Amino acid sequence: MSLSELDKEVPGELISEQPPMMLCAATIAKAGFKERVQAAGEAGFDGISLFPEHYLNARKRENLRVSDMQEILAANNVKLFEVDPLLDWFGDSASRSENLFFEIANTFGARSINVAPGFAPQLPLSAITEIFGRLCERAKQHGLRLHLEFLPWTVIPNLSSALSIVKDCDQDNAGITFDTWHFFRGGGQLEEIRRLSKDEAARITNVQINDAPQEPVPTKLWERLTRNKELLMMGRNSMQVMGARDFFSLVSKARYPHENASGMMSETCFARLLPGEGDIPIKELLVTFQEVGTVATIGLEIFSQSLSTLSTAEMAKRSMQAYLAVTESSC
């Protein structure tokens, strides 16, 4: 069920039916393919997103054929909704990883690719708009939608800048991923969503839910050491997808205008909370989306160092339970 179909006769309340639900790759980043899909199905998710390395690892380490993965998805009544995140999209033509994303999406019938400016160079918005438009044209040849995700420490820091890009690139397959953490930490306010035009609201077709405290919690030494180790693993995964040469070239050109970019990246990658455990007004956000006419799939994306010790099945179940507890409560 879409957000636009939620009962508008009861202001501030969500009815019991839920929109399509996606278990995001980052919530259980280290799970194997079968384990991931089974956990998603058992917890009540309609679909999943995948990191590209999850697909590569399923093929090479888990010895799964494409047909095996397709059978696992079908057996658990789970779809692949999205491949996430495409990071090296700033060239004049398709990169190695872009072609891999198209391969994965086409193989499993995914509807979209999430595009993030995590390694964006310092370019004017007009140049990024042009580049994103060309990417949309290539994606259109595969029947895919692109979701542009704004990240508050980058050159696309907020909803306004993302909207500007997807509107000005003039591509009908250009949409936006709205992540509650990025919106909250970037200083976004509910009033900003209430002011959206009908066309702007329709551009947001992917919403990622997670929570955060009002202010970041200071990290302990062991947490910083663990995070540094995990960042090295993330870099290794990126090299697996992009190739080492392209990865290092991309990183060398990346620019982060926010004064606390490193702190924001650390928190977003390791310290998100389950819905209802922080101060983000999640239910109010969803109700506001309903009021302006946004129709979106809901993804639960909880990058969490503290919750990473849970089993895949338990993390999927807790994520869904936390989301339902928030949306079914009174405002």
Structure description:
The protein has 331 residues and is of the alpha/beta class. The protein has one domain (3-327): Divalent-metal-dependent TIM barrel enzymes (TIM Barrel). The protein contains 14 helices and eight strands. Strands 1-2-3-4-5-6-7-8 form an eight-stranded parallel β-barrel, surrounded by six helices. Helix 10 (221-242) crosses helix 11. 45% of the residues are buried.
Total beta strands = 8
Largest sheet: 8 strands, parallel, barrel
Q: Give the ordered list of helices and strands.
A: EHEHHEHEHEHEHHHEHHHHEH
Rg: 19 Å
Structural class: alpha/beta
Q: Report the end-to-end length measured between terminal Cα atoms.
A: 21 Å
| CATH architecture descriptor | Alpha-Beta Barrel
Q: Could you provide a short overview of the structure?
A:
The chain is an alpha/beta fold.
Present the secondary structure layout.
Elements: E1 21-23, H1 33-43, E2 47-50, H2 52-60, H3 66-75, E3 79-86, H4 96-108, E4 112-115, H5 125-140, E5 145-149, H6 159-168, E6 174-179, H7 180-185, H8 190-194, H9 198-203, E7 204-209, H10 221-242, H11 244-253, H12 261-270, H13 282-292, E8 297-300, H14 312-327
Parallel strand pairs: 1-2, 1-8, 2-3, 3-4, 4-5, 5-6, 6-7, 7-8
Features:
14 helices; single chain; 8-stranded parallel β-barrel; 331 residues; alpha/beta; TIM Barrel; disordered N terminus
